[in-house]
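Self-study notes.
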Amino acid sequence: MAKVIAEVVEVRGCGECSAGHKAGDRFIFTEHRAPALCQWALGALQAPVAVLLQGGKFSWAQAGEPTMWACPDPTDTVVFRFWREEQ
C-alpha cells in the first residue's frame, strides 16, 4: 500500500499560516486517510495526492522526484513538497 507525504517547505507572505502550519510540518495521506490539515490546503492537495496514490505521475517531474503544490491563500501561501512512498 502506498502513502504520500506532504511536507511544508515555506509559508510565503508574512511567513505565518493562519491554520498554524509551518516549514517542516509533515502530513501523511493514504488511500483511506487524509491528515488533519487546513480545509483549503486539503482541497488543493487532494487531486494531485490521488494521482500519486494511484501510481500516476506528473509530466514535469522525473520518476520518484518530489513535486510542489500550494494552498490557495493569496497572502500567506503554504508551499508543500510531496512524494509517494511504499509502506
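Second protein, same conventions, sequence then structure:
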Amino acid sequence: MLIESPPTATVLYVENGVGFGGAVISLRTCLEHVDQDRYRSVLLHSLKDEKFASFDGIAETAHILTSVPRSILKTEISIPLNLKKS
C-alpha cells in the first residue's frame, strides 16, 4: 500500500520593521520548528540587512522595497481627526 505524503503549503511571512530585533529573532525561532516537508516558508522583509542570512535553510527570503522613505518612518506624524457628533 502506497502512503501519500501530505500536501505542501506555502506560507508567506511579511516583516516590515525598521530594525533587526526581537520580533525577527522570534520569527526565526518559530520557523526553525516548522515541518519543512509540509510547509514552504517564504519571508518578505523591508530591511536590507545581512543578518537575514540567518534564515538560510529555514525560509526563502526576499528583500522588498518600501514606498515610504525610512526618514519618514522615523518621524512622528500627527493626523487631526475632526469627529462630528450626530
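Instructor comment on the second fold: The longest helix spans residues 22-31.
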